[in-house]
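S2.1 Query sequence (FAD/FMN-containing dehydrogenase)
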Amino acid sequence: MITTTIDQFIQDLRENVEGKVYGSVDESFGSLVKVWNGAISSKPSALVRCEGVSDIREVVLLASHYGIPVSVLGGGHDWAGRAFCEGGVVIDLRSMRDVRHDPENEIVESQGGATIGDLLAGLPDDTVIVTGTAKQVGLAGFTMGGGYGPLNGQFGLALDNLVEATVVLADGSSVTANESDHADLFWAIRGGGGNFGVLASLKTRTHRLSEVQAAFILFPISEAKTALGRYQEILDNAPDELGLMTGFLMGQDGKPMLFIASHWSGDKMQGDALLGQITSLKGAITVSHGSSRYADSMGIFDPLVVNGRHHYIETRNLDRFNVESIAALVEGAEQMSSPFSGIVIHDFHGKGTRVSPDATAFPLRKAHLLVEIVSAWDKSSEELDAKHRNWATALSQNLAPHSLSGGYVNLLTDQIRVEQFYGETATRLREVKHHYDPNNMFRSAPGSIYRSE
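Output structure tokens follow.
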């Protein structure tokens, strides 16, 4: 794209939007187009710090006029940096983080840049929404791609709790999408990602939950196979109120350790009995255990979310643990290349499995395990960069024979695997994309299946 076109585009933006406009030659531009993953070095042409829906509409209209692609930056925690499309304009929503709670209708409305932490801070102590495990993550992107977390069993995925959304479309119009208005768009944004428009605000269902019993338990790597086998047995009969997460982290002695994190939101005696099945296992070290507000039970992994550290992530979905997949995970943990890396495994059972596969754009509704293989390191050399990436890739390949098709689309960049995840749903998603964004203006994750032929 020629420089004069970009210069004119930026000039027009500055004349028509209230928020600040930044071009690639501006001194502060480099710091603004950074996300938590320090390995990202994207090169958009412009960034607009939008102040409201009117700003978003002006950016979209001008981008359409000049033929410039658009991406959206919310919380900034997409590891692949897909908020920054090459040569395009970034609609930055980080100034749009207002949260308004409607207790009578059990709904919370938030702007598109609000993080999970913003939502939890804006809710009463006895009220929750479905979240992941890190407060820094933006709710909009988290929801549109799926939304795994400790409360999935009781309340479903985050996308199952989306009630309504205000979306700015490619023609600059602003529409309300819900079950009755723009129902096809509402279906698509629940699992199909952010490629249909800009999610300016969303209404999310809230739930009354005064406290949870949360525990974090560590095991030496030598006991991991036995512990994971028992974990699967507990999960096979898990009530909806039980949220389980497991995986591997590096211990303080530089050796990998298995962790099991549990959230229980039911009867206390039943919760103690379930937890006892884990803490009684050989080698179990209870790091923390107690009742608290749900918001206070989060944050265990916050120290690992370090802005600027380099990351590379692979993902797989397992039907369940078996001897082979457990062996591959333990071997991968033993070969971890960085003290900051880890393997995080989320369970999916309960209410989310009782949703029809075609009710939303998220078709995987059978009970399963989501594996995140997170390689994280401090930048040193290209050789070591490759070593850390190769560790994650090798473990992903070793898990492949035991995995379901595709993977978690919020973490995928491989077009073939995105296609595999969606299956027949991909055809309907393309139809909705063509209807609302026929020129493929929006280029955010998981965008690969929407590219023009």
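The chain has three domains: 1-92, 99-209+422-436, 212-411. The domain at 99-209+422-436 is CATH 3.30.465.10 (Uridine Diphospho-n-acetylenolpyruvylglucosamine Reductase; domain 3).
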